[in-house]
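User: Predict the structure for this protein chain, please.
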Amino acid sequence: HEVRLELPSGLDVEGTVRDGAGAPVPGARIWLTSHQVAWCAGAFVTAADASGAFRLRAVPEDQSLGAVAPGFAPSRLVDLDLLDRQQTPVHVELVLAEAGGALVGRVVDEHGQAVAEAIVGVGAAEPLLSRRSLGSMEELWAPRRSVAGADGGYAIDGLAPGKHRVEVSTRAFP
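Assistant: Here is the predicted structure, written as structure tokens:
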């Protein structure tokens, strides 16, 4: 059998991640949204280099990009379909303007034993879209995930201060 896959062309993107004072944020992770179910509605696709710069090739035009880094709240998501796409690559600046924190923990069973490979999700699963004042839709951050290690430990950084919904899923405890 022959399978033919046609991949739509996307945008080539180059960008920078800066803090609120304009300094580069090396190692910031770049998040790409997706139109999937809530727990799979995005993923980290690259990281900023030592100068805060990053490049992506063939990014879907109807998606959004954001950034997270330890000690900062997540950046606002930048909708690629709202940018000037006349010149390529498209330039994106992601700003980590607010202080943030992390969630670190351990998943255990009812006997206190570690539950390896549990998936921990932090953030609201719904809604993933919000209506702007002019009627267009804005993508929102989907839950971020971490997979617990052999000791049940997990860590999720780059969270905004405040309360967050936390969900855990594992094959051992449906």
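The chain has no helices and 14 strands.
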